[in-house]
Amino acid sequence: MEVEGEELKKRKQVGEDTVHVSSSPGDFWRSRNGPRKFFDRYSLPKGWLYCPPYGDNIGLIIPSKVPLSESFNKNIPPGESYTPKEVIDQQRSLGREIGLVVDLTNTDRYYPESDWTSHGIRHVKIRCPGQDSVPDAESVDRFISEALATFAQARPPGIYRQMYVEALYDFYFQSKPELLVCPETPEWKRDSDQDNEVVAPSVPVIKKFIF
């Protein structure tokens, strides 16, 4: 049939035993040896509904479950939605301005990145398989690199002591990438022996939280 032919063109292999057929608003999953099954792309992640939305901040980091776009609301009871916009408003009401979102999910179906970037919030995607799997070395390396870059941007020139960065990688049982070079010791540090001197900032500092 012509329709079947069109579907075949859209198929994308996702494993040895399944074929994925894109559709809207749902997706079809067909076992190579079984009937085609329907998968709602707006189905909730397992355990999502009753998972607490977010926890107490740890420094500037706010742990949270993944927010879901408004497209998922058809599967969510009234009052239980947790969209990116709601997250921004909730945290703002607590006096927290989100500056960076680190997404550790292994899919792009939960929300469009623009839900954050349109509000001036940086978005970083680090795909972690989940399902009892630990992040791979590449994901850990990227997370550390982003953390170092964010810290350097907030407090230039960043961490300039090589031994500190190496200790950070050792903690995660990895070797520091050769391409990662620490910044030079700042002039103020070279010219001063008062390592413990603390200078109060002369202007107010606006905290940006990592979500």
TrEMBL record:
Organism: Solanum lycopersicum
PANTHER family hit by this protein: MRNA GUANYLYLTRANSFERASE, MRNA-CAPPING ENZYME
Annotated Gene3D superfamilies: Protein tyrosine phosphatase superfamily (3.90.190.10)
One MF term in the entry's GO annotations: catalytic activity
Comp. bias intervals (Basic and acidic residues): 1-19
Protein name as it appears in the record: Uncharacterized protein
Region entry Disordered, spans: 1-26
Coiled coil: none
